[in-house]
Amino acid sequence: MSAIKLSLHGDVEGLEEGIALLAGQLGLQWDDEGLPVRIERADGPLEVSLTEQGGCIRFADNIHFFRCLGLFMEAAAERESFHIIEEPQFTMNGMMIDASRNGVMRVDGIKRMLRLMAVMGLNMMMLYTEDTYEIKSRPYFGYMRGRYTFDELKECDDYAAKLGIEIIPCIQTLAHLSEALKWSFAEPMKDSGDILLVGSEETYAFIDEMIDAASAPFRSRRIHIGMDEAMSLGLGHYLAHNGYRRRIDIMNEHLARVKEIVAAKGLKPMLWSDMYFRLASKFGGYYDPDAVVPEDIIRDMPKDAQLVYWDYYHSSTEEYENFISKHKEFGCDVIFAGGIWTWGGTVVNYKISFGNTNPALTACKRQGIKEVFATLWGDNGTETNVFSALLGLQLYAEHGYSHELDMEKLHRRFQFCTGGNAEAFLSLTEMDVTPLNEEEWRKLPPNPSKYLLWQDPLIGLFDRHAEGKELSGYYETMAAKLAGHRDNSGEWAFVFDMPQKLAAVLAVKADIGIRLKDSYDRNDLEALRQLAGNVLPDLTARVEELRAAHCKQWFGTYKAFGWEVIDLRYGGLLARIDTARRRIEDYVQGHTDNVEELAADRLYFDGPDRPEGAVFGWCNQYRRIASASMQ
């Protein structure tokens, strides 16, 4: 697009570098001979206007200016006059990127994301780093895991500051530390495989080092100290050393010690809230409506530590309001963390992301919650690319500047802010939410594109769930649809190329185990010969194309470390396809009198959160998908 020349004057001090970073993205040229636009810094709603006399942008915080600048450029390209007013709903609205489950975003990718966030008007980023940041005194902390250096994090923070965005360090100081605690240096401070030993002075010396290293690169005086999902707290080495104690007391004592360390460094902490509710629940549930946190625990909890209420699962405003009220009983500030579902496997799930985010943020507005952020987790290896979640970030942004969400405006703003097409991004969800399972909806959404990819072609642990679904034709259609989106998505082609290749694989693989089993049971040697001689080699070629596309996507976004895990999955899949071909050839040629894997009966996959029967359901653990044997 041709650049629009603007002559910006007024309260522009401190904005110049950010404007320069966004100029190309916005199609803006700062020229004294351009359209005059007065910049005014003032409290109150955001205002963007254009009349015959010129333009005006009125804003309070730097991030509001960059959103306003985008609104101005968008409207000026279409109208000769306009007056836009927006009222920010939150003082903090942003995102958390998981950098601990193998996908560690490259610095250039973080900068790209920050530019997009600025135009959307999002003002906070967290990089969730369990052990993926550098502690000079602990060489094994984050070893071969793509950890960030001080200089890398400072470069990101410097860049964010120019755009009015705060980067808040987000670490763990209790649980979720398995990748750090697996090394021998951690033995004296380990309660169990992923939980630190509360009460040990070595533990608190280590936490001191972690907080120093994590906070040093950033301007922010805030820090997220984690502490979620410490399910076996006090039941490992702690139990042996101290005997059994009420675990919620252990939690409070640990928080008090960590709070002392944080306060001594002039930092303000926040922590995930779930352990307070889990330890008060008879069955360890976070969202247990019958859980009652003891009054003494509420009384003794440090009030200057903010509680982060995370919830990605509920679909009614009333449910969110109920849990917000429970959090308010602690007497400290509450932050809400929702989720853009990037952790279900191979693709983002926008159906559940939108379905649960809309009531959640509506509840936050009603309850006066002023700080919110979206989490982008990468469970089980970060198979879903983080940039596929951009439409979810736009959702948070549009909620953040309006009392009521306007979907038409959201789609229009997404096109302007990112250059992406909202309908194309939404179609990614169709890899999992198909016309065949559209109404199947439980706490965890169906994710067949993951388990149908990684399941073994001979053993087929999920074959019963794919029976009679005619998935081959469906995924063939999806491959064509995604190819169209890829070819029309410009800079976001890489977001669609990998899922397109995946759909092409599933067009063959979704029912390959069913076809093999059926042909074997009928002793149809000709059909088996065709499957071994033609279909399986074709599948191999398609998997190799998918691996190449996935590899290109990964290295364009993340550091190299972590890809080896995905590479091993592809290598294992290719090896098992080859084994299937060889086993079947031996059978049809009479070299063996049976194929044990195909002779075995097929059952429905039976695991946690798996509904009974033929529905697709959910499984996001590669080790459970690939084999029923030990790995």
A few lines on this structure:
The protein has 631 residues and is α/β, with parallel strands linked by helices. The chain has helices spanning 16-26, 62-76, 107-120, 150-162, 178-181, 201-215, 237-242, 247-264, 274-278, 295-300, 317-328, 350-367, 390-399, 407-418, 422-427, 448-454, 463-466, 471-487, 493-509, 512-521, 525-555, 563-588, 596-599, 622-626; strands spanning 4-10, 28-30, 35-41, 46-51, 54-59, 82-86, 92-98, 124-128, 166-170, 190-192, 195-196, 222-224, 268-272, 306-310, 334-339, 371-376.
Secondary-structure map with pairings?
Elements: E1 4-10, H1 16-26, E2 28-30, E3 35-41, E4 46-51, E5 54-59, H2 62-76, E6 82-86, E7 92-98, H3 107-120, E8 124-128, H4 150-162, E9 166-170, H5 178-181, E10 190-192, E11 195-196, H6 201-215, E12 222-224, H7 237-242, H8 247-264, E13 268-272, H9 274-278, H10 295-300, E14 306-310, H11 317-328, E15 334-339, H12 350-367, E16 371-376, H13 390-399, H14 407-418, H15 422-427, H16 448-454, H17 463-466, H18 471-487, H19 493-509, H20 512-521, H21 525-555, H22 563-588, H23 596-599, H24 622-626
Parallel strand pairs: 1-2, 1-3, 3-5, 7-8, 7-16, 8-9, 12-13, 13-14, 14-15, 15-16
Antiparallel strand pairs: 4-5, 4-6, 10-11
What does this structure look like?
The protein is of the alpha/beta class and about 625 residues long. It folds into 3 domains: about 5-85, N-acetyl-beta-d-glucosaminidase (Double Stranded RNA Binding Domain, 2-Layer Sandwich), CATH 3.30.160; about 90-420, TIM Barrel (Alpha-Beta Barrel), CATH 3.20.20.80; about 430-625, Four Helix Bundle (Hemerythrin (Met), subunit A) (Up-down Bundle), CATH 1.20.120. Helices cover about 45% and strands about 15% of the residues. The strands form 3 sheets. The protein has an 8-stranded parallel beta sheet. Strands 2-1-3-5-4-6 form a 6-stranded mixed beta sheet. Strands 10-11 form a two-stranded antiparallel sheet. Helix 6 crosses helix 8 (about 245-265), helix 18 (about 470-485) runs antiparallel to helix 19 and helix 20 runs antiparallel to helix 21. The radius of gyration is 26 Å and the shape is globular. The model has no long low-confidence stretch (mean pLDDT about 95).
